[in-house]
Amino acid sequence: MITRLLLLTSLMVFLLSCKDHQKTKENVSIDQLTVVAPQDSVPFPSELTHFQTPAENPVFTGTGSDTWDQKIRERGYILKEDGTYHMWYTGFQTEKEPLSLGYATSLDGIAWKRHDNNPVFNESWTEDMMVIKVDGTYHMFAEGKNDVAHRLTSTDRIHWTDHGSLDMRNADGSPLSEGPYGTPTVWRENNMWYLFYERNDLGIWLATSKDLKVWTNVQDEPVITMGPEAYDKYGVAVNQIIKYKGWYYAYYHGTPFKDWSLWSTNVAASKDLVHWKKYLQNPIMEENRSSGILVPDGDQFRLYTMHDKVEVHFPKSPKKN
């Protein structure tokens, strides 16, 4: 009798467990499953990577006449503030003379007006610049002569003070070896300044500073290297860092040729500013449309490429089915 009861009890437990299991299977659908992305999955949203170039380009060039800015070159920089676009650019006639700083404004980012008192700064060689505003002061980081980076400041965007070349240090605090450290690009977060720079375009290094005086490498190896793909095999330099939906994005130019005869605009992403993954569909702009930067435009971004003319590129419209 006891044996029979035990058998019946075991049978009931088995049947109930099968029913619960079946119920669980029936209640789970593909819509309820949580898809977990791999840890190394990096988002490259289309609003940051897909742009189209309208026919109304270029939007800004050298004058082509006998002026100080007969030609322009390298990276310029654009900030949009209070409905006005502000652009700083490098102008020259011959590359042997000191390169000077120009300033222009626009209400739509397309039609530009040069400042009446250009060049706004010509006391030292200034090219390939970027600008960041902190607590009412504009900080400009630019290349000086021999591609050595220096910092300038202004409170009105027009009158600039040069604070001299940056004091660069290796990770152990020793002075950086002699040579260029150019295309300076700065990001600021939590009272720390992050400086991305290149040395002969052979890689991109990262240094930090708390006082804007001494800049110390995070590591003595590049954080972004050339290659392995062909489009940036022979040269790289960062033009801008942005933060978007929790990720950092570096817009950089690269070249596939040893003679640097052709450049493109590319994107890489990072969570910590040190470890970067390049966009698999790089480059996002070719045909010497380089020195690219994003400028916020309402709820989207514009992409401007700068060298050796300024062109604007708008987000591609979503494809309709």
Automatic annotation (TrEMBL):
PROSITE patterns: PROKAR_LIPOPROTEIN. It comes from the Bacteria. Gene3D superfamilies: Glycosyl hydrolase domain, family 43. PANTHER family: ARABINANASE_LEVANSUCRASE_INVERTASE, PTHR35279. This is Glycosyl hydrolase family 43.
